[in-house]
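debug: dumping io for the single-chain case to check the tokenizer round-trip. Nothing else runs in this session.
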Amino acid sequence: MTYSAAPADPASATLLAGVGLDLRVLADGDADAFAAWIQAVRRGFLDADGSADELETRRELLAYRRKSGVYDPTVPAPGTPVATLASWIGELSVPGGRDIPSCAISSVTVAPTHRRRGIARALVEGELRLAASQGVPAAVLTVSESVLYGRYGFGPAASVASLTLDTKAATWTGPKPEGRVDFITRERLRDLLPALHDRVRLSWPGELRLPGGHPERVAGINPAAKDAAARRAVQYTDATGAVAGLAVYTAHENHEDFARSTVRIGYLLAETPDAYAALWRYFVELDLIGTVEANELSVDEPLLWMISDQRAARVRIIDHHYLRLLDIPAALEARSYGAAGTLALDVTDPIGISAGRWLLQVDAAGVGHVRPWDGAPPSGAVEVRLGVTELSAAYLGGVSLATLAAAGRVQTSDPAAAARVLAWHVPPRQSFWY
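debug: decoded output
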């Protein structure tokens, strides 16, 4: 049975039935059920109701997702769920230029009329049990409220930066590539984006393959898109004629000082250093612009070393992409490592999916091998006792085990040695919400 066609988790369905609620997985092609479901999602995220055209477009774009709803037969509109969740199996980039299947979770809402009844727990834990039962190594999500998901074993694995740049206080000092930046239609950007993102994403731990419908969302090509008409798209073409960079942005007029208007970059994707430099130079030197804003950037952006004054940039780091390991041996063997060593991992799990003891042995080439262990740790191994939340947070290299040990979240016989093994030279990121 495929993941998307699997029935609702029996334990969660039983738990919710005990409080008079019905957990259902929406059937493919049920337009009426989807319309009610997506309106509940929009309500949960403070959006206005969508038009019929918007709903039909969303149904087509989200057809690949498994959609669950919790229904209360006693409410005035029993066909509209009081809680929602969507998921699909995506590909998560991990250190070493590879990826692993991951259960991507989205659209998690609970109506304010039905809080504190265990509904969110039943939905999320049920989806995690399903993914684990099908051999999926990890689950991921981008979170609106960061305090909610640690209880399920998720850890903040990839932080991102939000940047506000005063272009009047900083000039461009970076490279000036020979290629060119040109305006393109939003339709062309939509068509170019998937392949370019796929070529780039494996170099960034934490990135997901673009899900269905996302290129349309970035480009603003659907009836539900906000400020679509205001979006401008550009591409960078290198000296050979190959497209190596894309960006989408909107301009916002400063009515008091037109020459200090604002540009908001909705998405910037660069395959090469030249593409990165050319696109950022374009924005830093854009006429009539005094402020450039961008979100979902790396916490270690080269841009800060390409302008004359780093103090012209205000940077805010926020947690963004949360990860939850489900099959620890499979996940650990899929990534590469920064140093050789042996870690004896003793992992606890608040919901019992991934608890256990594993010996991670990393060779000089950075390849890890995992096997169970019991009794005393093997000679020479660094013992590490931690929860699945902490291991998930450290898995992509976004936080050091030494830092977690200093925070009292990890117990280990040698924090520095443990940190060296799991470290990675590229900070993780996730460049979009889902």
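debug: round-trip ok. Residues 82 and 156 are 27 Å apart (CA to CA).
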